[in-house]
Amino acid sequence: MTERDKSVSKRWYDDACGAALGMEFVGERWSLLLMRELLLGPRRFNELRAGLPGISANVLTQRLAGLERVGILLRRRLPSPANVQVYELTAWGYESEEVVLALARWALRSPSHDPTLPFSPVSLILSLRMLLVPERADGLHATIGFRLGEEVYGGRLEDRALRVWRGEPDRPDAVFAGQPSHFLPVFYGGMPLAQAEAAGMLQVEGDRAVAARFSTLFALPDKVAADGAPA
Amino acid sequence: MTERDKSVSKRWYDDACGAALGMEFVGERWSLLLMRELLLGPRRFNELRAGLPGISANVLTQRLAGLERVGILLRRRLPSPANVQVYELTAWGYESEEVVLALARWALRSPSHDPTLPFSPVSLILSLRMLLVPERADGLHATIGFRLGEEVYGGRLEDRALRVWRGEPDRPDAVFAGQPSHFLPVFYGGMPLAQAEAAGMLQVEGDRAVAARFSTLFALPDKVAADGAPA
DNA sequence: CTGTATCCGTGTTGATACTG
DNA sequence: CAGTATCAACACGGATACAG
């Protein structure tokens, strides 16, 4: 009716290259970050807003419609008594995890990364999956819980790989609690876990030895110089 | 770095996530495709225009400046007698190949891909690297040349991997000539090479057996349904 | 409370024309 | 060939109003 039901972008690239097609799907402002927020499972409208600092409601609505139109996500109404609408990636939408993580891993090599900016729970959990150093995880199998504000996530480390999900972990070996940004100094900055606990940044329950080791399994990629040369 | 470089985009995401940073770098219209055009080596202003159907000169200028500022590319003046300005990716810029290819591979699963759109020489050559099916290349070592309009590219297939570059190949086993879009039916659509030759779409020189086998080593990813479900 | 639709100020984009 | 200048159209984000 508003004649503004353009799929993803009104301006298109006239280019048969897959990269051009991909940028039509996810190149609009907010689209890729919105997909990131859905990568760990369905979310409601306002949960998405909360994870996307600064997006306005009308833009979020447009993006959801556009991504739905091209088959990246779908809207679903949960059965009564919940009877609430959620947005969920399609199978193909979930496959975009590789794209999101490849982009993030590449971008993090830039010296202009600012870790003091807001950091959503989903970003933190995905970053663990992305930045695990497999060799450091040798021989460690563990189930970990994360309490990030109101949200709970689980992780299972097995065979040098980390599987993550939203929701309660089953009999976790250790549970971390704190706000996402407070994990960064410990998991990526080399701060000893005990120090973060003493400072009240993080709380740990369960097996502290497992928790301490788990917190050392991750590393940011090496920075490049400001001129793009390897460090 | 708390001083943000807003020259890439006046609007930034207030988000510490690497994906958000990445979208600030390459999320603006044309940026990622511009990087794609540089992935096979330095290019001049008008060569870039030619590979980016529809970009206007002022936007290309802005994008080049923005990408230079954040360290993805640099401008260089070739020594006399050429004495001409070229744009070239930095080492970090070249690392974005993984991002570009991951995006393209994911997007190509969409049924809305239209292979009849314009197709740049760089896109074709990168697509070969991206869509090689390693098992099909077992035991085949060969040097291949590509003449795409005025441009010449080389490829070296070795150990089930394809290395590509812009410029003359050294003693190629076979050379293909034709416009990029005419390669698609043969390399990705199953059309026999001989038929494309007979139709005048492609020309082949050198070892025709190697050329014929080479043309069968590639495959588009499986399509998903329009609703994002696996095919 | 959970979304959706409309208006509006502002900044970005892109076509055309133009200059060194 | 390699860009710059101008300007109209459009997208963004905020506010607000509306609907279940």
Structural features:
homodimer; about 230 residues; alpha+beta; Arc Repressor Mutant, subunit A; Nonspecific Lipid-transfer Protein, Chain A; 2 domains; five-stranded mixed beta sheet; two-stranded antiparallel ribbon; disordered N terminus; DNA-binding
Write a structural description:
- 2 copies of one chain form a homodimer.
- By secondary structure, chain A is an alpha+beta fold.
- Chain A has 2 domains: 3-107, Winged helix-like DNA-binding domain superfamily/Winged helix DNA-binding domain (Arc Repressor Mutant, subunit A, Orthogonal Bundle), CATH 1.10.10.10; 121-214, SCP2 sterol-binding domain (Nonspecific Lipid-transfer Protein, Chain A, 2-Layer Sandwich).
- Helices cover 37% and strands 17% of the residues of chain A.
- Chain A contains 10 helices and 7 strands.
- The first copy, chain A, has helices at residues 18-26, 31-38, 45-51, 57-69, 91-95, 97-107, 121-131, 180-187, 193-198, 208-214, and strands spanning 73-77, 85-89, 142-148, 151-158, 161-166, 174-177, 203-206.
- In chain A, strands 5-4-3-6-7 form a 5-stranded mixed sheet, with helices on one face. Chain A has a two-stranded antiparallel sheet with strand order 1-2.
- In chain A, a hairpin with a 7-residue loop joins β1 and β2 (85-89).
- The longest helix of chain A has 13 residues, at 57-69.
- Chain A is globular.
- The model of chain A is unreliable at 1-9 (pLDDT under 50).
- The structure holds a DNA duplex (20 and 20 nucleotides).
